[in-house]
Amino acid sequence: MKRVALSLVLSIVMAAMTAGCSAGSQRAVPEPFAFGVLGATCEPQRLAALRQAGVSIVELPVAWDRFEPRQGRVDGQYVAAVVAQLEQCRQAGIKVILSPGLHYPPAWVRGLPGGELRGSGGGVPRDSGAELIFSSEVRKAAHRYLSRLVLRLGVNQGLENIAAIRVGTNSSGELGYPGPDDGGNEREFWAFGDAPQKGTGLAEGVALSPMPGWVPGSAVWNGRAVTGRQVHEWWDWYAGSAVEAVVWQVKALRSLGYQGRVHVPVAGRGVLPADKAKAVAGHLDGRANPDGAQERGLDYLAQFAVLSMVPGVDVDFTGLDDVSAAAARSTVPRQDRCSPGDEETAVKDDVSSWSSQRYTSALARRTGLGLVGENPGPPDFPFTGGSSLSDSLAEQLRTAPGYAVDCGMTMFLFGFEENLFDDGEGGVTLDDYKEVIQQSN
């Protein structure tokens, strides 16, 4: 890494840690600030190196399709390997954030009634996760899987090295629906299966569409003009159904005996309040929708308020130093960093020039949710949302940890472990990360 740039991020991190509070919320930052990695292998030699570098926590991914490749049949060999990974992390003194991998459903789950999301244009997402939002049968299967996972891994026994469990609804394991083009059609919304539209196989406690058959963008429903109030109610139902599925997962884990922290990964900034008003006025026809947040059902202002009512939930912002941060950094004045008073400004003023991390973390702090973060990862990876304007992985390491502290987060997770052990091919090494960690303490 370039030492001048590295020194800059170190000074930012040290200054924020010395101040002991978030610039945006003035809340004390717990000491020590936790550094971790995503996509851990829990391989003993790597764990030793990570521990020596100052990493104290790792995200361990589990895959539902490998755990239960056939309905009712658990792969004992795979389970034993995951149990061994947990034990290796425990012995190394490393805490684990467990990702159950509901977004990697087996093929048989997609074959269940309502097992696949359906788009407003008739599409099916190419890389859809489990249809946890509306399908009763999928939720039953997911609950059985979670119960086996919790039992087999001993998660319900209060394992000291399980720091959190991640939950989400889309194919990236984040809150929300698939992207607008994931089904091969243009601008699809994802609540058009028989369950949400007709009530057939609808999960218990989940609401039916308030306008069955209405497609966003249409000014008419059942032969009558659609009112702004009706569109607003439909949007609230659409976005609300996504966050309800997250709450359902948290409650399922609690009922199975897990009482620790739960992380909800979120990306981007969702629908901004000003854009929401314009979108509703246009019947959700595509206006005021710069990043597909409408089709993804992301209304963080409302959804975070729901999550704040569930004890033990932290928002995990997955895009520290994403492409929006690179753009906001170049504005005059720059709009990438969190600032005092952001919690109020975010819901009153024009924040369209803000970085996603600034806006989304302000909403999390506003609702009292815990807050952790991670960088997007290599911009050329297919699932990191990168573009030609994105910062390189080396730049992300130089910048993202400072953003995490600056925005009142209590943890930074670097994406990904593999990139720290690839002999610098991705532009970063474990020594680079070690220097950031050491200088922050």
Mean of residue pLDDT? 90
Name of the level-1 CATH class = Alpha Beta
End-to-end C-alpha gap: 20 Å
Reported for the largest beta sheet, the result is:
8 strands, parallel, barrel
Kindly state the number of beta strands: 10
Beta content comes to: 5-15%
Taken together, the total number of domains comes to 1
The arrangement of helices and strands along the chain is HEHEHHEHHEHEEHEHHHEHHHEHEHH
Label the overall shape. globular
Task: Determine the fraction of residues in helical runs and give it as a percent range.
Answer: 25-40%
Stretches with pLDDT under 50, minimum 5 residues = 1-30
| Total DSSP helices | 17
Structural class: alpha/beta
Might you state the CATH topology name?
TIM Barrel
**CATH architectural category:** Alpha-Beta Barrel
What does the radius of gyration come to?
21 Å
Largest beta sheet: strand ordering: 1-2-3-4-7-8-9-10
Q: CATH superfamily, please?
A: Glycosidases
Keywords: Glycosidase, Hydrolase, Signal
Protein name: Glycoside hydrolase family 42 N-terminal domain-containing protein
Pfam family, one: Glyco_hydro_42
Organism: Arthrobacter bambusae
Describe this structure in words.
With 441 residues, this protein is of the alpha/beta class. It has a single domain, classed as Glycosidases (TIM Barrel), CATH 3.20.20.80. Helix content is 39%, strand content 10%. It has helices at residues 3-19, 44-53, 64-67, 76-91, 107-110, 136-153, 194-198, 228-255, 273-281, 293-296, 300-307, 323-329, 342-345, 356-366, 393-406, 417-420, 430-440, and strands at residues 34-37, 57-61, 95-99, 162-166, 220-221, 224-225, 261-266, 313-317, 370-374, 411-414. The strands form two sheets. The chain has an eight-stranded parallel β-barrel. A two-stranded antiparallel sheet has the order 5-6. Helix 15 (393-406) links the parallel strand 9 and strand 10 (411-414). The protein is globular and about 65 Å long. The protein starts with a helix and ends with a helix.
